[in-house]
């Protein structure tokens, strides 16, 4: 066994010089137990404990009183309960610093009442006559107890970590269940998605589902504020509210969220978009979800792009609640942006969401995405940005899947080894040429 | 695109459906290709006014709205029944339903998109090459009616010139104005003997803030209910038919 060391703390200098004092006897007993003994005064304790070679045993005189002894004990247990021991020097092969522990004992020095007070605080104690073998045994017991406590602590931590990982995995699985397992298809159309959460769970989501007995196709791309588990919980809620409301919307609430009647009025012979099929479900989904969020969960909101496609005509009715304007690439390469038509969902109780309409002609492709794409930063901190995305999309004429592959690859190339800070979600909708 | 004429009323029982059926017939007789749409989902009856008995039609607009059938499945050619032959004039019906279950589902649950009514009318017009579509709505303010008014080129508000009929005037005027309906007109029905067109025109302007399209006199033959089918075809010389003919001419003129 390696040589053990002890710091024997004395009341004052004179106590050692007086051979009859307890410190003197103790010093002899420790040496008899083959321990390296260093003497210190109370105000030198910290220096010894935080030095490069902390002792195995700290012996404090009971005459210091329970309060001061307690302060040294606190010093050793500061923080998470680990002892205040400097980290092991790099390349330390001895392993001596591994799990290093300093035991604290109080020896009788003066009044017995002082010692009793310390014992009541849970400190081990030594009383004369001092025997080296007994001190050593007691010290070893303390070290072993500490080791066991540490093992138990680590085991508890490991269990807790595994439980957390398990919970996170379940959350991940549940969240995946909130994303459509299959994308609906319509003849003459391609629809593809890409979903890359920054963490195990995400605040982004996409959705695609049929409406009006399959006569329309809904697409949603949204970004819930915040990240991680909190955002994921609200992703589940907002996605459900939007979809459920849209799927179960009836005509009874057509005017909800609109200035009544005027919203339906024609504008220079142009009929209001609110009159076309899909307008009611879309508006009800946006306004209903907005109202629910602002009434029940203030502080959480989501940017939402919600479109309702008529696969026959190619008309896309949409509301853009504060979301990055999706890019519509015309067949010749010209880009259009589907600008916002209202604020983010969940921000203001009286938000109005206007409807807008755009027509996708054969060969046109729409890319809806979250800001995780454009806000991706390279290791130097430079954003990927809308300009780079636009330039790339403008030059891409292939399939929707090919478009997503190229954008994703370009974003990855920009990131290099940098961390992905935000969820990345993309949805591409393309009308096949010749349709 | 065809001219869409939405016929509406504040109160029920004013003879609106009878007016729609016969106006359609008279427009067809003028050589127009006409579609009739029964948007009174809660109490459809336009087919009866056209002479199609209950039970003959299996599918109607509600089936189309809830996705049970397509538009082609519900359109009914009234030409042979109306005795339209030869010329360009045609009369087609998109009927309501007569099946209670089919009425109850969409009407009571509200589980359909009113926008489909609009789309259906457009598709019907294209498929049948229609010049005019007459939409018969359920009385009062309801979603189908407001929707049909919003897409209308002409709003024809049917009203009896009595207290009940005139009470809805200001509200209907407001709705038409706010919906920017290009032509809002009043069609007085069941007009008792002694009321002059001059007096009725004044009432229309005061109460409805709109010009009068016509005044249909009280017809005992209609009130007795002993006649089935298109009244105007059976009684071409009846004052009711004559007055409605003037309205048809007015609408045909608006179209041009």
TrEMBL record, chain A:
Domain PPM-type phosphatase: 186-431
GO molecular function (one): phosphatase activity
Taxonomy, superkingdom: Bacteria
Coiled coil: none
Membrane-spanning residues: none
SMART domains: PP2C_SIG
Keywords annotated in UniProt: Hydrolase
KW Cytoplasm (keyword) present: no
Protein's UniProt name: SpoIIE family protein phosphatase
Organism: Microbispora catharanthi
TrEMBL record, chain B:
Any single GO BP term: negative regulation of cell division
Keyword field: ATP-binding, Nucleotide-binding
GO molecular function, one term: ATP binding
SUPFAM superfamilies for this protein: P-loop containing nucleoside triphosphate hydrolases
Domain CobQ/CobB/MinD/ParA nucleotide binding, chain residue ranges per copy: 6-226
Transmembrane residue ranges: none
GO cellular component, as recorded: cytoplasmic side of plasma membrane; cytosol
InterPro entries: CobQ/CobB/MinD/ParA_Nub-bd_dom, P-loop_NTPase, ParA/MinD_ATPase
UniProt-recorded name of the protein: AAA family ATPase
Lineage, highest ranks first: Bacteria, Bacillati, Actinomycetota, Actinomycetes, Streptosporangiales
């Amino acid at each position: 066994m390696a040589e053990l060391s002890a710091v024997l703390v004395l009341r004052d200098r004179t106590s050692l010089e007086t051979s009859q004092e307890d410190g003197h006897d103790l010093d002899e007993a420790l040496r008899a137990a083959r321990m390296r003994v260093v003497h210190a005064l109370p105000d030198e304790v910290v220096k010894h404990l935080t030095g490069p070679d902390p002792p195995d045993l700290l012996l404090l005189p009971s005459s210091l009183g329970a309060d001061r002894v307690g302060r040294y004990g606190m010093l050793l247990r500061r923080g998470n309960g680990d002892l205040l021991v400097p980290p092991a020097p790099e390349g330390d092969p001895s392993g001596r610093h591994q799990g290093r522990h300093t035991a604290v004992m109080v020896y009788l020095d003066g009044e017995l009442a002082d010692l009793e007070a310390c014992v009541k605080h849970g400190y081990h104690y030594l009383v004369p006559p001092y025997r080296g073998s007994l001190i050593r045994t007691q010290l070893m017991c303390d070290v072993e107890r500490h080791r066991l406590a540490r093992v138990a602590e680590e085991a508890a931590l490991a269990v807790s970590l595994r439980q957390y990982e398990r919970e996170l995995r379940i959350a991940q699985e549940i969240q995946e269940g909130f994303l459509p397992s299959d994308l609906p298809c319509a003849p003459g159309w391609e629809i593809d998605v890409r979903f890359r959460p920054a963490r195990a769970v995400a605040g982004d989501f996409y959705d695609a589902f049929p409406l009006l007995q399959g006569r329309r196709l809904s697409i949603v791309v949204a970004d819930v504020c915040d990240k991680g588990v909190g955002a994921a919980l609200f992703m589940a809620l907002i996605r459900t509210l939007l979809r459920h409301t849209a799927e179960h919307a009836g005509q009874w609430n057509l005017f909800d969220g609109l200035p009544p009647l005027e919203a339906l009025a024609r504008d220079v012979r142009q009929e209001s978009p609110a009159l076309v099929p899909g307008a009611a479900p879309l508006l009800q989904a946006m306004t209903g979800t907005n109202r629910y969020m602002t009434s029940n969960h203030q502080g959480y909101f989501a940017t939402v792009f919600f479109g309702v496609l008529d696969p026959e005509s190619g008309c896309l009715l949409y509301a853009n609640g504060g979301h990055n304007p999706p890019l519509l690439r015309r067949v010749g390469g010209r880009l259009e942006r589907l600008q916002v038509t209202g604020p983010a969902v969940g921000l203001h109780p009286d938000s109005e969401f206007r409807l807008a309409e755009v027509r996708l002609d054969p060969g046109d492709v729409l890319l809806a995405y979250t800001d995780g794409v454009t806000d991706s930063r390279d290791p130097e901190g430079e954003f990927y940005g809308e300009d780079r995305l636009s330039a790339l999309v403008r030059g891409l004429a292939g399939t929707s899947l090919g478009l997503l592959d190229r954008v994703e690859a370009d974003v990855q190339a920009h990131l290099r080894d940098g961390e992905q800070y935000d969820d990345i979600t993309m949805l591409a909708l393309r009308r096949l040429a010749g349709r | 695109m065809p001219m869409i004429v939405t016929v509406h009323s504040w109160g029920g029982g004013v003879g609106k459906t009878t007016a729609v059926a016969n106006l359609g017939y008279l427009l067809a007789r003028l050589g127009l290709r006409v579609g009739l749409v029964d948007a009174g989902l809660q109490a459809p009856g336009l087919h009866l006014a056209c002479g199609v008995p209950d039970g003959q039609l299996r599918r109607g607009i509600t089936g189309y709205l809830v996705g049970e059938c397509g538009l082609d499945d519900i359109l009914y050619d009234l030409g042979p029944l109306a005795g339209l032959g030869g010329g360009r004039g045609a009369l087609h019906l998109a009927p309501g339903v007569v099946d209670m279950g089919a009425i109850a589902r969409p009407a009571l649950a509200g589980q359909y998109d009113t926008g489909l009514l609009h789309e259906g009318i457009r598709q019907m017009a294209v498929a049948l090459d229609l010049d005019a579509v007459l939409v018969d709505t359920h009385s009062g303010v309801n979603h189908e009616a407001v929707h049909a008014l919003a897409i209308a080129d002409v709003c024809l508000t049917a009203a009896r010139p009595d207290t009940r009929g005139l009470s809805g005037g200001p509200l209907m005027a407001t709705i038409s104005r706010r919906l920017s309906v290009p032509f809002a007109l009043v069609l007085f029905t069941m007009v008792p003997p002694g009321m002059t067109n001059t007096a009725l025109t004044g009432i229309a302007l005061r109460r409805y803030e709109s010009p009068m399209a016509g005044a249909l006199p009280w017809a005992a033959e209609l009130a007795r209910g002993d006649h089935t089918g298109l009244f105007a075809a059976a009684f071409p010389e009846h004052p009711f038919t004559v007055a409605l003919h003037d309205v048809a001419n007015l609408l045909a003129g608006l179209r041009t």
